[in-house]
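Let us practice reading a record.
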Amino acid sequence: MSPTLNSSSPLAPSSLGYRHRHLLGIEGLSAQEIGVLLDLSDGYVALSRSQSKKTALMRGLTVINLFFETSTRTRTSFELAGKRLGADVINMSVSWSSIKKGETLIDTAMTLNAMHPDVLVVRHPDSGAVKLLSEKVNCAVINAGDGSHEHPTQALLDALTIRRRRGSLAGLVVAICGDILHSRVARSNIHLLTTMGATVRVVAPPTLLPAAIELLGAEPFFDMRKALEGCDIVMMLRLQTERMHGSYVPSTREYFRFYGLDRDKLAAAKPDALIMHPGPMNRGIEIDSEVADDIDRSLIRAQVEMGVAVRMACLDMLTRDLRPNDAPRESAPAGGV
C-alpha cells in the first residue's frame, strides 16, 4: 500500500521512489518505480468508482494532449484523468494543427512551450519523436505511444489489471500473441513484465516477429498452442495494418486459423488463464467473440477501467514538484487492492 499524500506531506517524488521528470517508456524503470506507480494507481481505481470522482490535486495546472495519431481509448482516458484531478485539459489534434501546414515538430514544441503547459501527453507515429519533444520543452512529458517503440501507460494498466486479479506479477507466465513486430504495447509489456519477475513468451508468424526478440527477455514461438501451454495470461494484439508496407500474412482468414485466439487454442493454457487485449479488437481476425466476451476469463473491459486510474497516477506523480505543500487540495488516495 502506498503512503497517503496530502497537502502537508513532506514526501517528494524522489522519496516515493520515482525519480524521473518524464514518462517516456518502461525500459529503464526499476521494479520499485513501477511498483510505486501501480500502488498509486490502485488508489485511483477506488476514487473512480466512488460517487465523487474528482479531486483538486492539479487545480491550476494545464495538461495538453497532443495526438499526431487518431485515438479513442488513450486520448479519452488521459482527458478524463486530467479532469478528475482538477487540471485544465486541452486536446490538440494533428488534423487541424499547424503540423498539417508544414510546421516542424521542433517548431510545435517551441510554440507549446510558450504556452507554459505543465504536462504534455504525446502520441506520434515515429519512434523517438516523443523523446525529442521532451528535450525541447520545460514541462513533464508522457509518452502516449510513439511509433513501434513504447506505450508505457498501456503496459502499466495491463500490469495493474493482472495484479488486481492475481495479486502479483512475479512467477506468472504471460504469452503475448500477434503482431509483435509493429507493437509498442508488446515492447512496453515485455520490459515491465520481465522487470517484475514474470516469464514472457511471444508468438507470431515469422514475418511478424522481430529478430533477436529474445534479447528483450522474451521467448519466441511460432506455434501458438505450444506458446500457450501452461500460460497464466494470454495477451492478444491486433494486426497493425497501418504500419505494414507489403504482405505480412497470406490472408486474415489464414491468420485467424493459426494465430487467432479461440476456445481450441485457449485449451492449451491453464484452465483459469485470463485473456487480455489492448484494443481496438478485430473480432474474427485475432480473437473470437466467444473468448473475448467470456465474463469469467476476459479482462478486456477491466483494462479500459484501469487505464483512467493509471493515467491519473502518472499525472499526479509527474506534477508533485509543481504543487506547493501549502496549496489547498484534497489528499491523493492510498493504494490498495
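A brief commentary: The longest helix spans residues 31-49.
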